[in-house]
Amino acid sequence: MYSGLLEREFTEQQEIIGMPDFFLDLNLNQIVKELQNNADEYDIRKMFFRLPKDFETVCYRQEIYREIRGKHLEKQFDLFSRKMRETRQYLERHKGAEQKQQYQMYWFNAVSEFTDGVDLLRETLVEAKPESKGLAGLLTFVEELCGTSVWEECRKEKEKIKGMLSGLQFELSMDGTNLKVRARQREEYYFDHLKKLFPQKFSERTNADGIPYDYLIASPFVNNEQLGYLETEILRMYRKSRPEFFKALEQFYKKFDKMIEVEVYRIEEELQYYLTFSMFQKDMEAHGCVFSEPKVQKDGSAFVAHELYDLALARKNRWADLEVVSNSVQYREGERFFIVTGPNQGGKTTFARSLGQLVYFAMMGFTVPAESAVLPFFDNLLTHFSVEESLESGRGKLKEELVRLKPMMQEIEGNSFVVLNELFTTAATYDAFVMGQKVIRHFADQGCLGVYVTHIAELTKAGNDVVSLVALADEQDHKKRTFRVVRKEAEGIGYAGDIVDKHRLGYDELCKRLDEGGL
Hints:
With 519 residues, this protein is an alpha/beta fold. It is built from 18 helices and 12 strands. The chain has 3 domains: 8-165 and 259-270; 170-240, no CATH class; 287-516, P-loop containing nucleotide triphosphate hydrolases (Rossmann fold, 3-Layer(aba) Sandwich), CATH 3.40.50. The strands form 3 sheets. It has a 6-stranded mixed β-sheet, with helices on both faces. It is elongated.
């Protein structure tokens, strides 16, 4: 059986997966919310909640995403999805219809849309000549589905009924108080006279028979409600005058009652995983953002990213035309943890988020927000950002942090990337240093790579595998932040006074503003 576009093991378990903690810390929930907004009736969020647990799945997805974008398959795949959505709409109407001919017609329409959609998918894949394992497997699946004798027979019967259906046209005329209904007999319409009088009210679009859409009354078969009296009478008239059509419709309903393969729905939904991100990437690229396909290594230790940026921040700023500063970073051989220090509001947390996002999107099989990237395979993301006191539990901020840290430190599995931001800020400086050092050493000794944002410069000496990075302030004006993060010895300066001066929060300024009533 075809394993799908996300791999079978993932699909079977996704229903029980909730939003992971690292989503909120890394602002990934903001990005996935936008992806969901572009996903119509699909609930795609669950597909983004679970990192692949093996390297092969990462490669599997990368190949699919690369091929979809490289061969510009998005439009045709979207048309296929529309056909599947229309199929489901007709099936819903079929279930609710009470009149025999009506629910048979809904079924016919559902099967027509379904088979047309699958045929379109097959034609698209045949023309694309897929090389990725996922799309090549999909082509094999749909060719087997479309290649049966039943499918071919259904195609022929479908076209035959469509031809008969196009002949079911009627005229309405008034004779005094009598309303007459009869099969269409003449080519001239009353609307022709109206068109001469009001040409701007009519369109030039026509149906398959060349009749302008403006002349046509909607078919009773597309009504969600019960048939009205007039519609029922028209059906009664045609059952007498065209019994061969209704007989063919009934035979179609009985013969092809198993044509709709629900497995195709799963494939269609999984396609949205790639299509929604491709749409998002295209929009961000139009606003100047750069994406690249990362090189993920199964056994390698190299971790290098050039011009990496926070994608969630770029998404937020794109309409305001605000610049998002990028940074380059590299873990050298033997290095495990970056300790990021620097001035307040200098971009330390944004930098840490960008690293976590890089790992996430790379492992999910997508392109990443960087000019280039090489990184090891990770099957787990662990994050801990500053928390507020819990009003419900009554625990203080420090205890809340420790409660959340405990399971993270106990349940490390496989290859984990760790992002820690401003831990133990309510503890005394020495206590925060001791606890921070123990946390860093625990994760590093377990083989994790990670980043720790802090104001405690002494933590840069927590081990030989720890590296100091500094968020820089402008050399000429310390009040100005560059948002650049570089490999540098910690300065031990927070530049808090610059923030105080910038916002006029010094003692003398506060006293003056209080006297003036300016607060």
